[in-house]
Structure formats: C-alpha cells, structure tokens
Amino acid sequence: MNNTQNYTSSLSERYPSKEMKYLFSPEMKFRTWRKLWIALAESEKELGLPITDEQIAELKAAADDINYDDAKEREKIVRHDVMSHVYAYGLQCPNAKGIIHLGATSCYVGDNTDLIIMTEALKLVRKKLINVIANLADFAEKYKAMPALGFTHFQPAQPTTVGKRATLWLHDLVLDLDDLDHVLDNMKLLGSKGTTGTQASFLELFDGDLEKVKKIDGLIAEKMGFDGCYPVSGQTYSRKIDSRVLNVLAGIAQSAHKFSNDIRLLQHLKEIEEPFEKNQIGSSAMAYKRNPMRSERIAALSNFVIAGSLNPAITASTQWFERTLDDSANKRLSVSESFLAIDGVLELYMNITSGLVVYPKVIEARLMSELPFMATENIMMDAVKAGGDRQVLHEKIRQHSMAAGKRVKEEGADNDLLDRIAADPDFNMTKEQLLALMKPENFTGCAESQTEDFLNTVVKPIIEANRDALGMHGEVTV
C-alpha cells in the first residue's frame, strides 16, 4: 500500500514541529529503552552484582545502533515488544545479553521512557510558551497607551487600551507557566519497582540486602538526569501523572483558544489582524477575503487538546489494584497526540504574535463613534457646574441618548448626540466645549499604568530569567 492509500495522522505530518515529533518517535523511544538498560546494569554493578565493565561497554557501543528488523521478526513470534528488543539487543551484545533487563519488568523501560519523553516534551512546550509570552509583552508595551473600545458581552463598554487587552492574554499564559513549572519540577521516574511495586525480584538478586534495594532507584534516576523516583507504585507509575500533565496542556489550550477568539473578532472589526502573506489566498470563491486561518486552526487544535485531557482522567480512575493493561492503547494515543497538538498550537501562537497587524485609525473611529455615550456623565457634571439642574439634565441626557442611538441603529446615520446636546439650552455648552471633552485617553482609567506595572513586575522578570529560551519563530504548515 502506498502513502496515498494509507491513513496518516495530521499530527505526524501537518501541525507539529520536527522537534516534538522526534520526541514521540520510535527512535527516541527505543534509544531511551537502551539507555535505561545501561543505567540498570551500571546500578546493579555498583551495588555488587557480578556485571563487568566489558559487558557495560558492549551495551554502550550498540546503544544507538538499533537492529529494528531483528526486533520486528522476534515480536512476530513472542508477541511482546519489550522482550523482542531485549532479544535484539542481546544479538548485538552476546557477552552482555544475560544481564540485559536483569530483575526488571516491562514497565521498567516502558513507564520510565514515557516519563522521560513527557518531561522532555514539557520542556519544549515551556520554551515555546516563553516565546509567546515575550512576543505578547512586546506588543503590550508598544500599544499600552493606545485607547480602544472595550467590550463586555461583545457590547460597547468603557474604553481600555490595546496593550491592556494584551495583558489579559498574557496573564492566562503566566498562570499556565506556573502550572507547567509545578508539574515539571515534580516529574520523577518510576525506577525499577518490579511486577507489583514491591521490588521482590531485586531483594532476591541482592540476597535480601534491603539497603541495596533501597539505593537502586536513586542510582537509576541520577544516571537518567532525574532527582528521584516516585516513592511508591504498583507495577506502573500512577496514571494520575498522565492526567496531571495533560491538564497542563489543556490549560495552555484554553488560553490559546481565548486569544484566537479575540483575534478573530478583532479581525472582523478590522482593528487587528493576524499576519497575512503576500500570496496567501483567503477564499476559493471570494478573492478579497483575509480569513483568520491561523487563529481558527489554534481554536481547532485547542479543542482537540482540551477534549483529549479526559482520556488520562478516565484511564486513571479505572485502573485495578497494582496493574491492568486497559491503559496502554489509550495512553499511546492521548499523550502523544496531545503534545503534538499543543506544539502545533504554540507554533501558530508564536507566528501570530510576532506579526499582529494593528489599524489605529479604525480603532480610533470605532471608539469615537461610541465615546459620546460614555462621556455623558462628564458632560452632565460640567453642565451642573455651570448652573444646570442635575435631575433635569439627567433626563435630557437619557432622551438625547435614546434618540441618537435610534438614529444610528435604524437609519445607519452617524452618532449626533453631541449636536443634540449643543442645541439644548439647558446644557449651556457649545459643540467646541463638548468636543474638548472627547479625549479617549481621559476614559481609559488605569489601563496604561496597569499594563506597565504588570509587565515590569510579572512578565519581564520571567523573560529575563529565560533569555536562553528566546529566539524561536513559529512555522505555519499547510
């Protein structure tokens, strides 16, 4: 069957980066298995088992030269992937084959590898998240003082600034980073716990020496770059770890989706657009269109990640005692595909935030069309200071506002509220005096200073502490 006749996942070809795809590749998996077998043999030797330097050297020499064909042929016979690779490794290391996987169960390589891969994948997610945060910080800084119409319920509300709105996107990502760092800082290995988590086989290997058994997990963890192993387990590590990890990815997906919603709405309003390339086609029928395809793709992939977080939650809740195998097929799909999808989301998020297009004149025009309604309280107070009756003026403001709003909605005409007020003698104000009140920056409250404070006290320290992660650029694959 050729490739055009065979199903291939979009998550292996279309959306994620090659770095994330490699982490979930067979090569990464099986090379990690061999590193774990070497770490086990070294630890057992250090604790007194009769394993030689020559045997370990032989294992190391063949560590990256995996004889996949031998493993595949063996698996056809024994129907067991781990034992097939133990056999294949042994063919390459005849002197060491007797000590490969000594005392271990399949979960020693399977579960520890999953934890290692998830840890490395979280590090890559974190790096991309930092780059999105840096992009949005630059955007918020640049537009911190630019007034824009605020929306509640997508109805015109008090003005904000373009930069302040960006801090809302940023704050969500800072919360995600906190969650990610907590999970990443607490990732550990399973170690080598045996068939039911009791390490009985190792107690046998070490002739009942409990102190040696207690040391083996720490030695393995250190050799694999971890600070420890989970203190207790059944045959597998708790499947709540998978749920915990995917909840972090789902949190990032929620934040990205919210951002993509706002950008799509702003693009509809013609205030802010995602990047649009010179030769990009927005629609096959409507040549003039500039569809927000990147933001729409973020939304689609984010939905997938959010929904996918249910898989490990259900799996964790339905495990039996020390081990069942109803987790395996599900976690092979849910964990890898969630990471691949969130990687695609962050690639798009980096791409969009590095090239957002802002249209100040449109932003200003929309704000000014609504500002007279929002300025009515200021107008009323100034009129009262000039000798007007507040109760009379309040009713007049209400009547004029309703009439002006009706004119805008039913006739499609301009907002003439200021003209109505200027023509009303009870206000005793000229059109020029009214226009002098129409300064957008007078209505944005603390938006600019809030943006500055948030950037200076929260965001910039994060960026400064992670400068080595900066410099990534998101790629859009069609």
Protein described:
The chain has 478 residues and is mainly α. The chain contains 20 helices and four strands. The strands form two sheets. Strands 1-2 form a two-stranded antiparallel sheet. A two-stranded antiparallel sheet has the order 3-4. A hairpin with a 2-residue loop joins β1 (147-152) and β2. α11 (240-269) packs parallel to α14 (328-353). The longest helix is centred in the N-terminal third of the chain and has 37 residues, at 106-142.
Topology:
Blueprint: H1 10-13, H2 18-23, H3 26-46, H4 53-61, H5 68-78, H6 81-92, H7 106-142, E1 147-152, E2 155-161, H8 162-185, H9 200-205, H10 210-223, H11 240-269, E3 272-273, H12 293-308, H13 310-317, H14 328-353, E4 357-358, H15 360-374, H16 376-385, H17 390-411, H18 417-422, H19 431-437, H20 447-465
Helix pairs in contact: 3-7, 3-10, 5-6, 7-8, 7-14, 7-20, 8-11, 8-20, 11-12, 11-13, 11-14, 12-14, 16-17
Query: How many helices does DSSP assign?
Result: 20
Distance separating the two termini: 25 Å
Query: Kindly state the mean pLDDT as a whole number?
Result: 93
Low-confidence stretches: 283-288
The amount of helix comes to 55-70%
Largest sheet: 2 strands, antiparallel
- Portion in strands: under 5%
> Which sequence of strands runs across the widest sheet?
1-2
Provide the gyration radius in Å. Answer: 31 Å
Number of strands: 4
